[in-house]
Amino acid sequence: MDYRVSAKGFDLTNAVKNYIEKRFQKVDRVLEDEVHLDIKLEKDATSFIGKAMMHYLGKDLVVTETSDDIYNLIDILSDAFEKKLKREREYARTRNKSNLKGLGEVFTDEMPVEESKEKISSVKRVNLMITSVEEAIAQMEVMNHEFFVFRNMETDEINMLIKGKDGKFVLYEFQE
Length: 176
Hints:
By secondary structure, this protein is an alpha+beta fold.
C-alpha cells in the first residue's frame, strides 16, 4: 500500500510516521491489490482530527475520527478504516456471488448516439452504486459532484442526492 500522510497545525515527526505505518499494516493485509491511501491529520485548539481516504472497488472510502491524543487518534482511525474496508469487501463479494454486478465491477461505457435532432451528444452507461445515504454524501464531497444517483443499501430503492446552493443536500427517493 502506498501512503501519503499530511499534517496541518503541528509537525509530523518520524515517530508519528512510523506509528502510522505500523498501525495501517493491518489494513494493508486486508487488501489484495496495490492501492493508495491518503491520511490527513489536523490539530485544532483542543484536539486532533484524522481523515483516511482510499479509492477501492470503484468507491471512495472515507473515515474521519477525532481524539485528544495523536497516537490514540491513529489507533481509532486505523481500526475504523479496517472495519469499513472489510465491510465493503465482504459486501462486494456477496453481491458478486449472487451473479449481480457489485462494486468491483464499476465501469463506464460510452455509446455512440445516432445522428438525430436530439440534444444528447453521447450516452454513458454506469453501474449503479449500492451504498448508504451517509456514504453517498461522503462520495459527493470527495468527488465534488453536484448530484449522485445510487441504490440505497437500507431501502433497496434508487435514490438521488442533489447538492443545493446553500450547501445542504436534497434526497430524491424514486418509487417503482
